[in-house]
Amino acid sequence: MRVGQGIDAHAFQAGGKLMLGGVHIPHDRGLAAYSDGDVVLHALCDALLGAAGLGDIGRHFPPGDAAYENIDSRILLRRVVELVNGADLRIVNADITVVAQEPRLAAHVDAMRDIISSDLQVDGTRVNIKATTTEHMGFTGRGEGIAAFAVVLLED
Mean pLDDT over residues 105-122, rounded? Predict the structure, then answer.
C-alpha cells in the first residue's frame, strides 16, 4: 500500500469561473491560477503523484508552459491517472477536504464525487469529499481564497 497527500490553495480574483472538483460553482469570483485553478483536482493530482513516487503536479505540468494555460484540470487528473496506472498501481480511495468560508459547497459535493470517481475510474464509494470553513480565521476564513487537502491510498 502507498499513501500520498496533496495540498493546494489559490486566491480569489474578480471575475472568472470558479471550478472545484470539476464542477462549475456559481460565485462572483474565480480563483487566480495559470490553469483553471481547481484546487480540489490539483491537490488530488499531487496526492496521487506523491503516493506513486512520481513527483508533483508542477513537475509534470509546469506553470508558465503555454500548453497548460487555462487548461481544464480534469485533463491533468486523467493524465495523472494514466501515470499511476502505468506504474502498475491501483487507486484504492481518495479523501478530500475543501476549506472555504465561501461559497457554501454542500450542494455540489455529490457532483464533485461523481466527476472525480469517473476520472479516477473507481466506484463513487471510494471517493469522499468534505467541505469546511475555518470560522473566519486565516486567508480562507477572510474569504481571500480556497484551499484543498487530499489523501489517497494506492495498491501495488
Answer: 98
